[in-house]
Amino acid sequence: MASSTPYTVRWGIMATGWIAEVFTKDLLTNPAVRNVHDVRHEVVAAASSSSKDKAAAFLSKVEAPSSAKAYGSYHELVADPDVDIVYVATPHSHHFQNAMLALDAGKNVLCEKALTVTASQARKLVETARAKGVFFMEAVWTRYFPLSIQVRNLISSGAIGTVYRTIADLSIGRDSGDGKVDFPDSHRMVNPDLAGGALLDLGIYALTWVFQTLYHLQPEEKKEQPNVMAAVNKYHTGADETTSIIVQFPQHKSHGIALTSLRVSSDVDGKNSAGPAIRIQGSAGEIQVVGPAYCPLQYRVIKKGGAGADEVQVVDCPIPKDAGRGNWGQGMFWEADECARCLRDGRKESATLPWSESITIMEVMEETLRQGGVVYPDVISTDAYDAQSPLNTGKRLAEAYERAHVHGVYEAIAPHFSATRYKPWPAVESFLRSQVPGAVGLDVGCGNGKYLGVNPDVFMVGSDRSPSLVALARGRCMQLQAQQGDSTGAEGGGQAGCGGRAVVGTDVLVADGLLLPFRERVADFVICVAVIHHMSTRARRQEAIRQLLRCVKLGEAAKTGGQVLVYVWALEQGTSRRGWDEGGEQDLLVPWVLKSQQKQPKGQKSRKGNKTQAIDSGDFAGQGGGEALPPTPAPVASAEPGPSPSHTDPVFQRYYHLYRKGELEEDVLAAGGVVVSSGYERDNWWVVAANEAPSQG
User: Fold this and answer.
1) Cβ distance 316 to 290 under 8 Å?
2) 669 near 687, Cβ under 8 Å?
3) Which residues are catalytically annotated?
4) Would you say the pTM of this structure is higher than 0.90?
5) Interhelix angle for 18-27 vs 333-345, to 10°?
6) Percent of the chain, pLDDT > 70?
7) Are 42 and 6 in contact, with CB atoms under 8 Å apart?
8) What is the reported pLDDT for 574?
9) What residue spans carry the region label Disordered (predicted)?
10) Which CATH class is domain 418-572+661-691?
11) Nearest C-alpha neighbor of 623 from the set 25, 201, 14, 329
12) pLDDT tens sequence across 533-585
């Protein structure tokens, strides 16, 4: 006699991005709402690759039980004995390493689609799952919809005769009208570093319908490897933007046509006026599936020769909603129910999507990309497992992200940026002028060097990560030196290092703020203006402050030692035109428009930046995938002064962390410093920090 107690599965969520949120909220709905009474789900843990705080915020957002544990690494999650199964919700680029990490730890795994970047990776995952004796499944949620099950049953029953052709399309129409699509180049949809492109993200759904209608229902001994003919248009990033595939099954004389594009849409008006996204054509009729290929809600059965409307069977398949969870329900719970039943029954793979079928579909996608000349980096396409891969630890992801969204941007816009930066902030100017004559100071992140000459009575060394900005700072030094020579009648002199003869007491060099080349306790003061908010994780921001504190002298008391002034953008900008304020998103991508003609700024003209999930190596996925680099909405208006951009003006996205009130002081304390003073000035927080006084004997 079957047990009346539902079988409970305890889930660990790997990544905290958009798809993880949708799936987890579905897990937490009441199964009875969808007429499921034999299994139930618990969320016992979630992990972010960047911080425990991020995982905790995720659990709070999805309203997980208070007992659910937050982890700041994937390694901790897979080591948790309370986790029965790990849901891998990172981008496709990370799936192989992340799923291997969980499988290697002996965990059952549900891994988001596309399963991997290459077929060899998919085979390696299956081999590992088999060797470890654990359950493993690709999370193609559409397969488990009641609608999909009904369609497969209709085909099996011969309702439309022998199926000879399936046409399936999932295209999203994001053409921006200027030759581009409205995703920044760093977005997971078009970024090859994240296995971007239409095929792996969207086209897999079109292939899902091809395979579950033409391949899956064949007897095992009659399943055949298909021929693949593909046409691929590549985006300027190297990812595929439009892909069309003919999948031929020669023995069965059937064709599947899978279409996907970022340029055009399979549902132009969002009302299905363009017709069915999927057409399954048989010798005796046709089944049309209406709605997006990943989440269809209706199908029609049209019999051959039928002329009257009464001969067309229309079936609606709505997704049940849980009123007790805010009327939530997206349809991802059905694949979770399948996992639970497999675990309950001791099955290691799902009959609805066997391992062999996931591999075959991956082989089709791999061949399609090969024919289209799409190549992904070795770090994401290798099938060599590395538990300490940056895809598992996230350690080097922040550096790569900042290279793309900070260092690379400022290097590209340096002259244009410098032309808008010429007036010191009052708080910074006051701090510099308060320094005693002969003091030695550092300007870390000096940009174009506008602060180097504020106080001519001190010696200053500026550093910046951008060689182009350092060159501009040297030019400024020369300009100031010439002015100084004119005012004193002197020929020059002073220190070298500013591209020739320099202003007395100034020098500039290229240096990374996290690896400062200065000796310990060498400076009387340090300024760091508008730099630390570009660090993409809190650990890196705190380390940057620690580096600044290392450079200043110790005193008998904090206020008598060297001091550090840090100046960052504030979240609380309610009175500004940007519209950012308390409670808003803190991690943004803010556009810089490289306008063809730059006007002198008359005031800040700006708009809200683009929300991102910053550097959680599973949060890069955004609308469907994990944590490697943040999901980024389409570019918005510039946050910088000047005329409106034209369609030909290049737009660069800069990462910012907006500091909330008190957060900068917290980071100073975490870095081992003390707060001497702090304040707010025109949309910015500032703090003057110092080292703890040395202990007395």
Assistant:
1) no
2) no
3) 113
4) no
5) 60
6) 86
7) no
8) 79
9) 597-650
10) alpha beta
11) 201
12) 999 888 889 999 999 999 999 987 766 789 999 999 999 987 777 778 887 88
